[in-house]
């Protein structure tokens, strides 16, 4: 995957982990969710108008036509067809609006990844951050490709059927029996589907990629823990200072704070020794990672929770539609692709969240790989304090009314719930 990353995004530079969001940002900028970095007020206002225009016609209006479809629904099959995409659209509207509302906080998180504090210092740390960067690209492609395939399959199946039909169950306040009007509505629906796929892929994988980068920082902390006591030089501070002087380094506000942290740790090292200063550095770094994870959770917990709940019903309804339309290959193939896309969507959140739990669980274990036998009394106490603080796993949650942990057990729970709802609805339909 590294070669594919290089083909689309250029060389993988672990010193600039935020560059790994190039795929998501390419779509976000064109969808009106990531304003250009400029002080020109005219450009900013025009971009805001573009953002509202796009969201109004291809999110709000598009979703409203699908909601109105239910006024003519007559049976369970009609309900299943209506819910087929509606819940995805409703959750998407909420996710996009929350992303737009929190866009400044999201950009601050992306900026933090460019700070010196989160920048790797040696080859071993480079490898961990490099893996997170490639995974960011992989997550984007893993969702974007099946999502676009789903849209294409809907469009093709509606055209190749014996009788051409609109791909999305929706209601319009005018008749579209006329071939010209039908063509215009068909184009609007297909374009809207593709735009919805791009909105979903860019916002969802941005959130899951942020979680993946948090996992990379936790792994980097583990690497630093294992090295304590085995080196008596001030290599870490030297690397940070060199990074600040490098022409390729991006200077941000956090760098000034990192310089201040290094000065304080240098003073502690002169007073209490090299090992004590490095333990304190790990404690500070751990605290910053916790703040980063807490910010990610606070920004994305509502949208992720909405998607998890919607996906539970969507998977159920898609299975019900498949069962009722097994003889129609034009419905079966697009539905199977859509089902795969929905499962992938929730798996991205649960899998990346599970990785953070596992990496944070290993921190206490990695502390034992340090040369703790050489620690003095003060250093040993500091390490015990860190181990006590890190004994609690970093668990990212999503929820509004109640919390759901982002983990693989949660993913399995969603799959079980979807099947249970499907079994109940199927039994009701057969009565």
Q: Which secondary structure elements does this structure contain, and how are they paired or packed?
A:
Elements: H1 2-9, H2 22-30, H3 41-68, H4 76-101, H5 103-112, H6 123-160, H7 179-227, H8 235-245, H9 253-272, H10 274-324, H11 329-361, H12 363-367, H13 377-390, E1 397-399, E2 403-405, H14 408-430
Descriptors:
431 residues; two-stranded antiparallel sheet; 2 strands
Taking all Cα atoms into account, the compactness measure Rg is: 25 Å
Give the number of DSSP strands.
2
Question: Cα distance, first to last residue?
Answer: 50 Å
Order the strands across the largest sheet as they lie in space: 1-2
Shape: elongated
Main sheet characteristics: 2 strands, antiparallel
Helix content: over 70%
Helix and strand string, N-terminal first? HHHHHHHHHHHHHEEH
Folded structure, characterized:
The longest helix is centred in the C-terminal third of the chain and has 51 residues, at 274-324. The protein has helices spanning 2-9, 22-30, 41-68, 76-101, 103-112, 123-160, 179-227, 235-245, 253-272, 274-324, 329-361, 363-367, 377-390, 408-430, and strands at residues 397-399, 403-405. The protein is built from 14 helices and two strands, in the order H-H-H-H-H-H-H-H-H-H-H-H-H-E-E-H.
Short description:
Helix content is 75%, strand content 1%. It is an all-alpha fold.
